[in-house]
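Subject: complex prediction, re-run

Hi both,

The earlier run crashed halfway through, so I resubmitted it with identical inputs.
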Amino acid sequence: KQEVTQIPAALSVPEGENLVLNCSFTDSAIYNLQWFRQDPGKGLTSLLLIQSSQREQTSGRLNASLDKSSGRSTLYIAASQPGDSATYLCAVQETSGSRLTFGEGTQLTVNP
Amino acid sequence: DVKVTQSSRYLVKRTGEKVFLECVQDMDHENMFWYRQDPGLGLRLIYFSYDVKMKEKGDIPEGYSVSREKKERFSLILESASTNQTSMYLCASSLLYSPLHFGNGTRLTVT
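This time it finished cleanly. Structure:
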């Protein structure tokens, strides 16, 4: 059974710092990996999707990388801002179907 | 922009009641999902559907059922609500192997 782990569970940084969030998964037979953002009391917003054949995806200040063979992904946030404060979740989509398995998330706080 | 609408933001029900949570998407997506989210347990898949009238059990289907009579609507049914079903319920939709789009969630309290 696929398991997804995110470390750290919580992170607090000063504004302007570059930071890395980590995601690992146990079964490398994935079709894609997705990163989401969740604000308190809200649903999830899709940030980036990396296909299993890709190594990275970029959107603005966000860059996500994927190393399928080692079962790892990172989300890099450049020049962090207080508005980036949220919980970030990664999820893997299996080749066997369309279901996603989620990690528990990293709660990020960016202090002004 | 894709819109996934969940009918209620907050819901309070009594133990034993039958509860319906409704979800509608406006982008003709084949796939629809129901997750619940609990502190310390993350998001857990209850049921998903990849076509009208089709459904698949997720990781925690016990105590729940679903209905998908039309492509745009996916309903989650709690047959007899219990206090351990107090949770945040999240609906999502997607095209096959494309990003998931989530609704804003329904926070259900069962007393």
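Chain A touches chain B through 23 residues (CB under 8 Å).

- K.
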